[in-house]
Design a protein that fits this description.
It is built from six helices and two strands. The chain is mainly α. The chain has one domain (2-165): Protein Binding, DinI Protein, Chain A (2-Layer Sandwich), CATH 3.30.910. It has a two-stranded parallel ribbon with strand order 1-2. Helix 4 runs antiparallel to helix 5 (81-135) and helix 5 (81-135) crosses helix 6. Mean pLDDT is 83; it is low at 149-153.
Length: 167
């Protein structure tokens, strides 16, 4: 996407000033407006709650592992070699389950984040497209990152899109 923006910017520069002046260009900080959307704030709160739940579950697993390890270390000299091998096997199985759970938690969290953010992003893009169409802009550039093209003299659609979104 960024490469496309850079290619488009280079093409505009190459076409010369007269062609660029004929185009209506605007910019908007997509990241900034998204973080101000009530839906985004609500989604972030949901994700924070979900992450706290996952963190608690993961911590409980870690605590159980640590307790079992501590018990093994304290009793290893007083139990049989067969019992020690059994405990080592249990500890290794717990480590494996913890690693598997951690990966599942990360995947689930990423899936939930994408699920929550997709409708928000779609709503924002539609609002940007609607405002650009209403105002007659042919191109709207995202100015939210340091590598994105920023049209400093072009109008910023932030306020108009925010108003269109109703906040």
């Amino acid at each position: 996407m960024r490469h496309l923006k850079l290619v488009l910017a280079a093409l505009l520069l190459w076409m010369g000033t007269t062609t660029v002046n004929a185009q209506k260009i605007a910019h908007i900080d997509v990241q900034k407006i998204m973080t101000e959307m009530p839906e985004f704030k609500s989604g972030q709160a949901q994700l924070k709650k979900l992450y706290a739940t996952y963190q608690k579950e993961f911590q409980e697993m870690q605590d159980a592992y640590q307790a079992k390890l501590k018990k093994y270390q304290a009793e290893s000299s007083t139990v049989s070699e067969q019992e020690n091998q059994k405990r080592v096997k249990e500890l290794m199985e717990m480590e494996k389950n913890i690693a598997k759970s951690q990966q599942e938690i990360q995947e689930e969290a990423a899936k939930k984040e994408a699920e929550l953010m997709k409708p928000i992003q779609e709503k924002l893009m539609k609002a940007i497209q609607d405002v650009a169409k209403e105002k007659g802009y042919e191109y709207v550039f995202d100015s939210s990152g340091p590598t994105n093209l920023i049209v400093a003299n072009g109008p910023d659609l932030f306020t108009a899109v925010k108003s269109k979104l109703g906040f």
